[in-house]
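Service request form, structural biology core

Requester: graduate student, group of Dr. S.
Request type: structure prediction, single chain
Budget code: on file
Notes: please return the result as structure tokens.

Sequence provided:
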Amino acid sequence: MSARDFAGRTVAQHVEAFTSGTVSARDLIEGVLARVERAEPFNPIATLDAEGARAAADALDARRRRGAGFGALAAVPVSAKDLILTKGLRTAFASLTMKDNVPAVDADAIGQWRAADAVLFAKTTTPEFGHKVLTDSRLHGVTRNPWNRAHTSGGSSGGAAVAVALGLGPIAMSTDGAGSGRIPAACCGIYGLKATLGRVPHEVAPDQFGQLTYLGVMARHPTDLGAGLASMSRGHRDDPWTAAIGRTPFAWPGESGGHPIAGKRITVIRRMTGGYLDPDTETRLDAALAFLDKNGASIKEMDGRDVDWKLDVARIILRANQIERYADIRKNRRDDLDPSFARTLDEGDAVDAVMLRRALADRTTAYRSVQRLFADADLLLTPVVATPAPLASQDQFAPLVVDGKPLGDLRAAWYTYTIPFNMTGHPAISIPFGRSTAGLPIGIQVVAPWYEEAHLIRLAEAFDAETGASAAFPPGFAAGA
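Core staff response, request fulfilled:
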């Protein structure tokens, strides 16, 4: 039975081809595994489970022969970031300290995808414990940008973004703690969704009530974000945030809710803090605004410096959570850690009770600041990052350098745009919108009120119809190539 390359097809096309008998689940997974081999120079895969995927595909084929029914992701090849627990499949957190860890249970979102009959074939690369927005680790090495190997994939869901960009399945499960899903999506030219706080269960996090990290979806086709989200959004008893929307999953496609652009009030925040914005990124942002204006949106711009974003709050809360969770590893196995992760934990150790108490209060201030923006706006629009992907050699603690000029701390200079919405819980999407003069992808971020993920996905579909981004593959990886 020959492998079939379904790269570039939607989730629905995968499901229809399998359930109709046009193609077998085994064919679909063999096609992906062939692409995995070709993708090796970019290093998106942390742990490949070829035999497990083949066995799952064969079981689906046997069920089809018996005339059984199937879930919404039937035979869809999927991957998941190496921070997400997968039963029987190594979850190493990209750390030498966890390199032999094989969970006994799935994260609930993974369990939901499996119950929908998806075929999990791999764990994707991430920095150690997902601690930075670049994807490299001592355990798995450097993950490179599919459009230019000299540049980073972004992070911390870099492997997931590269996998989707190269056609290794139509969707991948990511995590996003300060932009970790949206940033690599922008760097790699795909779609990335961070849903509303509580939309997707994340029951393994130790601090459930102070949650900043979200499980998300990456996809080549924006409509597949909806398919992936719909199959992972049932609530879980150990995640209190999911109680806010009950145990009914997100519905997709559901109701359209009218035109995604015409008549919508969009507030544009070109610079979050008044810092540098790459000229190519600004040009593409202006092109996106022209597209929205042409389609009937009402657009206004505001100075991001007028908003009290409380940008340092997320760092304090994240660092406090990290040192609480990994203090023993820092104490007993520091020499095995990535030096930048050890330094990150040192920052966490310096967070005292007064700092944390103030940060928790300031998180509410940030939420209220964003809520005030939605008083006269339906959507917020920003860049995802201030420049296209930096070099793969970029250090997390080194300044961002553009044209030989240091622009300051990477966090402050590059990715201020994504951080606030992890604190405030608002859903946000990264939409690819062209490339730089050097050929690197550029993304825009759109943020909506709580629970309006469907609006973001519909908007992304409208953008995709304009740009054709879902049909764009890095050189050498076109569909059927």
